[in-house]
Protein: Histidine phosphatase family protein
Amino acid sequence: MTIRLYLVRHGETPMNAARQLQGITDAALTAKGRAAADRLGELLRPVPFAKVFTSDRGRTIETAHRIIAGHQPQPPLIQLSALREYYFGGLEGDSGNAVITRTIRQFGVAAAFRAWRGSERFAGLVRSIREADPTHQAEDLPDLIARAHQAFTQVIAQSPDSSDILVVSHGMLLSALIYQLAPEDLPFMLLKNTSVTRVDITEKQWQVRGVNLTRERDILALRGSATSTAHDAASDQSQK
Structure:
């Protein structure tokens, strides 16, 4: 059994363009976001997605529909609320740069950069956001990780064996999964809009095959590696 998850962060929204913390607040895609989703759909058109999973936010649903627009037959699209973005609490709508400044003022430069460095930087980032939230409502790290685990447990349970699955979700939620599998692979600024990360799941392991890919040649190479992986899995199965 090999399930190949193509994890995509949604296309750009006006709040993304303004560098605001969006969280559970919803918005439509910008023209740039729509164009990027359409282009990604062209690159991924040969991938025979068996199913598509999104959060229940419009920006992920629109991105997914644009990616699979050229697929025939159209794979079923399933919305999971557990795939929603991280909740920033009272910081939703704030400038990301303002939150960084507030954290540095509150804890000092040295403490802030220690928290954001190394393989634990994602955990440090989430803790910093929660501590900077004046309402104390921002999601904490254990809850975010538990929700990511719940979401992908649901995805795997509903996915056929030896299939390609598209998951369109959000930057922090997808980063929470990558943090558990390969924390050193997470980029410092986390995931870009319409970036592709692939995770291959077998009976023995979850393997990260590429993270935060946006360049055409990288996505095409990733798509090509899926063909060889599927061939190897079929060969292994035929020998049993």
User: Anything to note?
Assistant: Strands lie at 2-9, 49-54, 77-79, 163-169, 196-202, 206-213. Residues 230-240 have pLDDT under 50 and may be disordered.
